[in-house]
Amino acid sequence: MPLTTKIQLITLLITSCILFYWFLFSTSQSHITDQCNQYRYSFTNLNRPTRKEDAHVLILTPFKQSAHLVDTYFDNLLKLTYPHHLISLGFLVSDSTDGTFEKLQSRAQQTLPEWQRFNKITVLQKDYKYDLPTNEDRHKFEVQIQRRAIMAKSRNTLLSTTLSEEHDWVLWLDGDVIEYPATLLDELISLDKDVIAPNCWWHSYNEKGGYDKNNWQETNESIEFQKTIPHDQVLVEGYEAVLNTHRKLMIDMVNEGGNTDMYYTIPLDAVGGTCTFVRAQVHRDGAIFPPFAYQHQVETEGFAKIAKSLGYSIWGLPNYFVYHYI
Amino acid sequence: MPLTTKIQLITLLITSCILFYWFLFSTSQSHITDQCNQYRYSFTNLNRPTRKEDAHVLILTPFKQSAHLVDTYFDNLLKLTYPHHLISLGFLVSDSTDGTFEKLQSRAQQTLPEWQRFNKITVLQKDYKYDLPTNEDRHKFEVQIQRRAIMAKSRNTLLSTTLSEEHDWVLWLDGDVIEYPATLLDELISLDKDVIAPNCWWHSYNEKGGYDKNNWQETNESIEFQKTIPHDQVLVEGYEAVLNTHRKLMIDMVNEGGNTDMYYTIPLDAVGGTCTFVRAQVHRDGAIFPPFAYQHQVETEGFAKIAKSLGYSIWGLPNYFVYHYI
């Protein structure tokens, strides 16, 4: 073999090698460009009914000065049996000086095996510079209404920023709800209601009691009572000494009428925010958390009142428990 | 040179080549993985004031049976002098059988030079199966209120699905607004108001007139009048024969009081949706488009009433014109 032939052979080999890798490389590049393009354009038909298979859930949690709750919160989430790639998480941290944001940031970036990873995690910071004036006990009732209006704004900010076309359901889960079944999402999805809330209680090693008083039904007395007050007066539960609203609370309805089934559902007129599961379209239509009086309610109860006005139905699970930090 | 040396040389060359490209390829791959990760985690401080530089604008437009308007709409958008990479677009197409969705889809995917490309385009479909019953003229006023409630839901769906943490401003721009200055966004951003609306008129070759009657101020008479009606009665403008609301419309306030400056601003109590510019945080707080009566208003006027209740101020530009299709 003469030297020139050998040189030609080497040149040919090198060129083939370059061409082959150039081809590989450019294919991978265009594949990447395609991946990026899927974020630049998005076409979605929202007429689709809520998906039965592969429904995508957005879990939303407002946090305030709660660094100590973040680990328990994430440990519980990681146990959820619902496929994690169909779950996105959204957090709004407000008025916190205890490192809640940094703690959430580090848990969000935690290295996890593929099957445990959530679809997307969004952490927002938004302060409302509002502290409950603890000394003004005699204004407690009014202070509660102001506090609820701030909470409404923070829930609205979290919802409007994180909800996107891919979501079928939104789970509102308070950071201090520390115990719930790992099958929570599978069960709430299969119940297929517009809005549904489990019963939020607290428990210690030997005692338990109702926690979320905002899951309730109107009664004949409560409806009559509302006719006697100004249309923009705000009502809240848990201040019986100041104001008896005559509502029937779900915390008092466990096993009522001999119905002991865990999935037994009752119609509600208002919900709290400790653990409430909402069909995404209910929020999309405009059922947000009013920071203003709507049918005598603000925040989560106001949300339920708006949802009902828009034709949606609200349900409670009196025998299905989730537990709040005490 | 013995043959074995030559073989060694060739092997060495090929190996180097493989190693070099493997390195190039893997670097590009990890770069891509980084790009994808930026979508999986997002940390945002919403306490930041609205950005003066690099503010990101979301332009939202509901479309219904409007395929014929899509080209003009996009041609106008492409002329905007504000940097296009700081603009995202969101469309909601409802109850359309004329190919509006397909037309929007094709314009969204149009190949454009880098500097003309928008940041992100989202096109949603959501039908409300609602047709104005044209024969029932005697119910025209009631029908208008029903229609506005549907419009409110469609605006809320569009807003809640597309608004994200990156946006500083939202421009509501109706698909049939066919003429406006290319400097619209630069000018509205520099005015730095919570909510601000230019004056929407129509014009032909020799005539012009006011179009958007929903930009208005309350008057002493309108406030007194509202005390005489049920708190949940909905008012709409443009039905003087049925109902005189006593509002002062911005379409009637051009050059009023000798103020001829194009950027002259006046306080408003309600806005329409033809062309309205909103600080994103106003929407995030919960100022959506009520499909229910709020202070006697629904949809865009209701949005303004909620925004005012939340402490935001509403402004109009009586001498700054945008033109509606006639």
TrEMBL record, chains A, B:
Keyword line: Membrane, Transmembrane, Transmembrane helix
UniProt cross-references to Pfam families, sorted A to Z: Anp1
SUPFAM superfamilies the UniProt entry points to: Nucleotide-diphospho-sugar transferases
Top-level taxon of the source organism: Eukaryota
Residue intervals passing through the bilayer: 7-25
Family: Belongs to the ANP1/MMN9/VAN1 family.
Designated name of the protein: Anp1-domain-containing protein
